[in-house]
Amino acid sequence: MNAGHRRLAPGLAAATAVLVPLALTGCGDARTDDTTRDQGADRSATATAVAESAPTSEDAAARLPDDFPLAAALPATNGDDGTPVRVTDRPGTDGVELCGDQAWTPDETLDVAGVTYAGEAEDFRGRTLALYADDAAAAAALDRARDAFAACPAGTVGGTDQVYEEVASGRGAVTYTHRYRYQGSFDTGLEVIQVVQVGPALYLASYYGEGGGSPATIASSVEEARRSSRPVVEAMSDLGADTPDTTPEAADVPLAAGWPTGPVEAGSAGVEVPVDELDASFADHACDAPAPAGDPTEVVRGQFSDVETYLTRELLTFADADAAVAHVAGLRDFYAACPTRTVDGFSHPVRTFDTAVGGQSFAVVRSTEHDAHPAIGVSALQVVRVGSAVLLDTVSTEGSASDEAAAHALADAMAEESGDVVAAMCAFTEAGC
Description:
CATH topology of the largest domain: Protein Transport Mog1p, Chain A
Mean pLDDT: 82
Number of strands: 21
CATH architecture of the largest domain: 3-Layer(aba) Sandwich
Strand content: 25-35%
Helix content: 10-25%
Oligomer: single chain
Strand order of the largest sheet: 1-4-5-10-9-8-7-6
Structural class: alpha+beta
Shape: elongated
């Protein structure tokens, strides 16, 4: 952010923002001087516009509608001085400059609208909606922004490193974080930047606050920005095209992440993703019965086999998170009821216990004993739910896990190996990644 937005170390020059709310820069006061757009009486639940603007073109298709909800989900008044938050006919974000390159300018646009909000202390939000002649022109503007960010992962302004990271990307949409590093350490300042193209329109948003203190607070800030912008992006479909298809697919998840990648013994298949059916069922092996199948909307399966190791993963997606929660609960009840089987003097106790992975998880460990002593052969299942997706992760090896501590250690090791898979499942949450 610029000097008016950030508390920098003494003697440091100002750090320049990527997308700075115009009302907070030296470019004039967007609250009082700019022509505003009337967004209608039914906008009282969010920020309100207070005047009408004259059309900039005879052709209605060449301008943004006055009632477009650009201020949706923003407070109705600025937190710093109580003035109304208003949509104007100028950008709500400043020029986008990265390492000397302009990532976005209002050039070639047919119409532009913007809105800014200034809260108390470190809370600044700016939005710009730009209308182009056609979809191709808007897509080209998005591509230029992507290229500019890709070419400038970090820059230095006034002794402070400006660090940019792409945190989410899809067809027609990309999200970045902008953090501030001085003498090797990041401060708590965080800007979340969104660029979204829908048809002939391009949406740019900047949300600045003190959310950069930890990975958890950064993730929370990104999610909050996405939730805040959602009604704007949804309304963009009325400007000439459908909302970008960001529906996640199970096939996009890196199901084999964390599995061995080296050569395997002759006759072993190694990694196989995807497969129509698994070679062996954990439920049949552990409980001598099929597990509840549920009603998933999509299933992707993969497996790995070597001489002494068999690994499987299944990713199931459901219509919503409630359906996924119910399926995990049913699976846990099923495995908790699995009996201890004894064959030829070997017994196979089954332990079921909760774990702390994703939003809901538990593990099942089937061990082997002979005459009440540990024996070789262990199989384990970890079930992890994130949003509306459920991961079934299994391992069967020649090892042993005959007590509680060993069973929990095996579950912990499985959770670490599947970490990238679970992380990618954030796409199936309401907030997304």
